[in-house]
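So, can you check this one?
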Amino acid sequence: MASPNFHLSIAQERLWCLSQMEGTSATYHMSRSFHIEGCLNIKVLENAIDEVVRRHAVLRSTFSTLDGLPVQAIDPAIKIPLQVIEGSNLNGSLPDWLNQATQQPFDLDAEPLLRVNLVHLKEKESILLIIMHHLIGDDGSMEIFINELASLYAAYCQEQPSPLPPLPLQYSDYHLYQRQGLQADVLETQLGYWEQQLAELPALLELPTDYSRLVMQTFRGQTHTVQLPLTLGQAVKALAQQQGVSLFMVLLGGFQLLLYRYSGQQDIVVGTPVANRQRAELEALMGLFANTLALRVQIDEGETVAELLQKIQRVVSKAYAHKDVPFEQVVERLQPERRLAHSPLFQAMFVLQNTSTASLKLPGVALTPLAVETTTPQVDLTLSIQETEQGLVGCWEYNSNLFRADTIARIAHHFENLLSTMVKNPQVGVGELPLLSEAERHQLLVDWNNIATEYPQEHCIHQLFEKQAEKIPNAVAVVFEDQQLTYQQLNQKANQLANHLQSLGVEPEVPVGICVERSLEMIVGLLGILKAGGAYVPFDPNYPEEQLRYMLTDSGVGVLVTQTSLLDALPPYGTVQSVCLDRDWAIIEQQSQENLNTGVYGHNLAYINYTSGSTGKPKGVLIEHKNVVRSFTAIQSWYHTQSWHHFGSKDVWTNFHSINFDFSTWEIWGALISGGRLVIVPFWISRDPQSFYDLLCSEKVTVLNQTPPALRQLIAVEQADDTPSQLSLQLVISAGQSLELQSIKPWFEQQGEQGPQLVNMYGATETGAVTGFRLKDLPNHRSSLSPIGRPI
């Protein structure tokens, strides 16, 4: 029969509450496993387990509620059976079974929270798996269990009595002392320290994650283990001795510097566990003793490594002087804003294990510890470093719902880089410590920025189009509704218009206005103006009359390419000659269809774009052919270097934006220079996200250019439909406005590895270079889309 109910310790209460919130899960499990070779006496092992369970009452605890409060009951007669399993009966592989067994939840109010399994593989080969819930123990308790099991097994094999001395206390005695023995004034003093030390904490450690943080914190994780070079470990210890600090403090400093560099935040809080077994009689007792300390350090770029280590020493020393107060009471006193998406106070932890993990030494058998992959990280990122005979071994435990494995491997490498430079010169400023290795610096500064490619400076936009027309004459160049033109047809029509414009006096550097509705004729008009040697100046008939009149006068337009239906929408334009592509086409088509030699070069004007005039009068910017050619050549060269997207004849582009908006430069000429197919989006479709989505699907568009608001609308359309995506997108280019990555990142992640890549083209660099970045790199970079021009 179970003994009367006991109250829980403070740590147990918080853990029990968290377990109730999560429901059945393995979040608070810990395990050890061993590979055994030799003749194992199973009966002796069972007797040894029974004795350990008899000695430690907490192992016989179950947890339930009484009057709404959690209580634990201890059954004096209960035994923990050794579950023997034949390896031939396992479902799946041994690693899979070990993981599944470790994840099997406990029934807190109906069974002991300890399991011991033995998997029999061969006659003299087996696997021992020990699983314990944190409600009844911590890492120290697991080590005690293993050591006592080994001592008892060795004694029982020789038919000797237990060599273990009686326990003077049980865990229930400890938590009674914890609740009653910590004097009120001492408790208040310690709580006051933490209240001051952790006041106004940052809400979250903003590490750049690969995946969006979910609304509810998840505990799905993996580990990445790294053996640090032996020489580095020795150098770190030497630095600690030289600076009069502990090894823990040097490694903690490197970890906090790493978090500072990755997050960009100077206020870094890291959690660390402490054994919290201050009294000698507690050292051999099993139970949940471990406490957690929040170590807060302000990183100052101007301070040296040595100064940072001294600062960390002061922080750690004061924290250890106030370690008696349970972490749960610190959280309760601070009352941080509770967010279900992440743990309170800190989201990263650091652990130094300066004693080797207990090994199970049994007579007559050889045992080798096995690593069981953890899948329940308590915080976003934990670094555990263990001292071994081979040097320092780092285990990175991370939330795999936030980070990918390759990202953690890179983080671990950067931690090693920081340590290596810290030990070389402790007088160097922390802001000068290189995070990247020489190979990474070369890749970033040279390989990935090698966009200074040769480009045909004397070639013009229309000449590059003509090369495609010669190469793929019968390929469809442009589509509008149910109409289309091949490259050859478009080239011929544009040549006819160019010859007609030249007869009206158009020559190099002459501005030619164009005011045409979205249509095939719009592309013919743009290309024809360039082929004539002129620079096109787009006019939107929806602009106010005063603005249109100003732009006509300011640009010095002498010829205006338009359509009959738009003549009345334009203000009186004096001596400007109009060419209506519908009304005058019978005359235009009598001109030659052959390419022209107009004497236009890269330094000549291609077009003039006017600003909206929202902050005053519209301002025109002169764009030369070489500006556009350079931009496209650099972009395509960069993409090809990064093995991204190779633009070509298989690509389908959209002309979604008005030719008055510089984004259209990339849409139109990006398609026609690279040999792609350009789909002109009718105006009414551009204003209806559902219709635009349908058009993208039906035309199998591969390259999409969108502003962030329009992109979000498009994503909303697809997410509102339960059917699988019909999109064929391979590349999405965002420009025009600042991109809020978090608002669209989940959609891109849902598309999977075969989904489109995202490139941000908003903002201008000093050099005007155009670069692109993968989705994961987006938050830290902006670049220019528009060619750099000169004011009119």
In short: Confidence is low (pLDDT under 50) at residues 640-644, 763-792.
